[in-house]
Amino acid sequence: MRIAIIALTKNASKLANEIGQKLKGDVYVKEKYTIPEGYAIEGDFIDFVHKIFRKYQGLVFVMATGIVVRAIAGVVKDKFTDPAVVVVDEKGSLP
């Protein structure tokens, strides 16, 4: 299963890297927090999410749920074809 882990802040990026190592997923963070094994989020965040949404079977967002809802709103189709979406806060808790 291809999984992307996505974060926007410094603390969230640290957790995203930990999750990425455990799940063997691709880690996407803001450019200033990128690590050698990760990828930079470039440009508009919503455009970025739309671009990668169908490339993965699972997306783990380390950020507020409201941000994620707005980001995926334009690309969600149905539960049979959409990737799994999980949201955790910067402390690793489910909201």
TrEMBL record:
Residues annotated as domain Cobalamin synthesis G N-terminal: 48-93
Short name of any one Pfam family annotated for the protein: CbiG_N
Official protein name in the record: Cobalamin synthesis G N-terminal
Gene source species: Thermoanaerobacter thermohydrosulfuricus
Upper lineage: Bacteria, Bacillati, Bacillota, Clostridia, Thermoanaerobacterales
